[in-house]
TrEMBL record:
<dbReference type="InterPro" id="IPR018615">
    <property type="entry name" value="Ribosomal_mL55"/>
</dbReference>
<dbReference type="GO" id="GO:0006412">
    <property type="term" value="P:translation"/>
</dbReference>
<dbReference type="InterPro" id="IPR044884">
    <property type="entry name" value="Ribosomal_mL55_sf"/>
</dbReference>
<protein>
    <recommendedName>
        <fullName>39S ribosomal protein L55, mitochondrial</fullName>
    </recommendedName>
</protein>
<dbReference type="Pfam" id="PF09776">
    <property type="entry name" value="Mitoc_L55"/>
</dbReference>
<dbReference type="GO" id="GO:0005762">
    <property type="term" value="C:mitochondrial large ribosomal subunit"/>
</dbReference>
<dbReference type="GO" id="GO:0003735">
    <property type="term" value="F:structural constituent of ribosome"/>
</dbReference>
Length: 107
């Protein structure tokens, strides 16, 4: 019995050294690497956290129900796309081609 347990213990010992390699990926559902990330809260304060995805900054959404009517309207207006203003300039065209006919040589 003791010999059998000793034989099983010897079989379970692995020889791990710098010469051994693995040709496959790590089979983990959650990886250990965490990335430094800045979380911006709705009031503008920031917190440094460690996040599982490599992101630089995370901005938390603002609760519009806690704002006053004026602030809510200004925030909603800022979300809408701005209309592009087209500036139409009228250029005075007083070019007279007959004035320059004397400089053109006819063959």
């Amino acid at each position: 019995m003791l010999l059998k347990q000793l034989a099983q213990a010897v079989q379970q010992i692995r020889c791990i050294s710098s010469a051994t390699t693995a040709v496959t990926r790590l089979h983990r559902s959650v990886y250990c690497r965490l990335y430094p990330t800045v979380v911006v809260q709705p009031d503008g304060s920031t917190i440094n956290i460690r996040y599982h995805q490599p992101r630089k900054i995370i901005k938390l959404p603002l609760d519009l129900s806690t704002l006053s009517d004026a602030e809510r309207r200004s925030r909603l207006e800022a979300r809408k796309p701005r209309k592009k203003v087209k500036i139409m300039e009228e250029v005075e065209d007083n070019f007279n081609a007959k004035k320059y006919m004397k400089y053109i040589k006819k063959k």
